[in-house]
From TrEMBL:
The chain crosses the membrane at residues 29-49, 56-75, 81-100, 112-129, 141-162, 174-192, 204-223, 235-254, 260-280. Keywords: Cell membrane, Membrane, Repeat, Transmembrane, Transmembrane helix, Transport. It is found in: Cell membrane. It is a multi-pass membrane protein. Coiled coil: none annotated. Pfam families: EamA. It comes from Pseudomonas panipatensis. One of its GO terms (cellular component) is plasma membrane. Residues 3-128, 139-276 form the EamA domain. This is Carboxylate/amino acid/amine transporter.
């Protein structure tokens, strides 16, 4: 779980950077493409192509296409029809997708993992629920697709590593992820991007550099590697821990308004969901 906790803080910090320096100023598709290219420059020179099962390579490319490419395109498109509070509300359903997809791949039903994921969703909803208004069905469906592809990617990677064990370190078998992401990000930029909204300041370029090298390259690798070291229920819960952490970081650094009682209550509920999952694991073992 240390990998997941590290990335939770890293991504929570990244959300504030995007909101403060990139959102509305730099074309989102260009930002996604830049992140993929920078991350690829980190991992592709380290990547082994020989001696690796072709199905594993193809599977990890699919993970990258789903978990990064499709997820981010749907996320950015949802902002056309949803307000920010609505987007945040609808993304808290990711743990449910993780638990259900993990159970489907394992051909079983684990009620404890589903319960833990539901408790985590409740915690995040306590923090972020501000009401929903207007025509939001299209945005809701887009975000559920984004939630499902992000969940499917991390669960699929976990199963691929278990199915194709190897003496080759994971970091040398992860470059395929960014090849798959590029297959989605590049057409997205070419078809939907706005060349008039490229970075115009040194700060914006530095933020993109941070996002590409740390949030994307290091973050995606550590998150997926961490996912292989925990059970599906814990992985589902960790998908919502970034909500209180992100709000706390935003409050401390950028002094944004946050409802501290709701933050504390929601964060406590999310932490409690980890206990629910562990209790279920102990009972299953017994």
């Amino acid at each position: 779980m240390p990998y997941l906790l590290f990335v939770t803080v890293l991504w929570a910090f990244s959300f504030s950077l995007i909101g403060e320096y990139l959102a509305g100023r730099v074309d989102s598709y260009f930002a996604v493409l830049t992140r993929v290219l920078l991350a690829g420059l980190v991992f592709l020179p380290l990547t082994r192509w020989r001696g690796v099962a072709p199905r594993f390579i193809g599977g990890v490319m699919l993970v990258g296409a789903l978990q990064f490419g499709v997820t981010y395109i749907c996320l950015y498109q949802s902002f056309r029809v949803l307000t920010v509070p609505e987007v945040l509300l609808f993304t808290v359903l990711t743990p449910l997708h993780v638990a259900l997809i993990d159970d489907a791949l394992n051909r079983r039903f684990n009620p404890w993992a589903l319960l833990a994921a539901a408790v985590a969703v409740l915690g995040a909803a306590i923090i972020r629920y501000d009401g929903v208004s207007g025509d939001f069905i299209e945005g809701f469906l887009l975000l559920q697709l984004a939630n499902a592809t992000f969940a499917a990617g991390q669960v699929l990677y976990k199963h691929l590593v278990a199915r194709y064990p190897s003496d080759i370190p994971q970091y040398r078998r992860f470059g395929y992820f960014f090849v798959g992401a590029l297959l989605i990000a590049l057409p997205g930029w070419l078809l939907l991007g706005n060349p008039q909204k490229l970075p115009s300041t040194e700060t914006q370029w530095l933020v993109l550099l941070f996002m590409g090298l740390l949030a994307t390259a290091l973050g995606q690798y550590c998150w997926n590697k961490g996912g292989t070291l925990v059970d599906g229920g814990t992985l589902a819960v960790m998908n919502n821990l970034h909500v209180p952490v992100g709000l706390l970081i935003n409050l401390l650094i950028w002094n944004q308004h946050a409802d501290l009682p709701r933050l504390a209550l929601g964060g406590a509920v999310i932490v409690a969901s980890l206990g629910v999952n562990r209790l279920g694991g102990r009972r299953a073992t017994a």
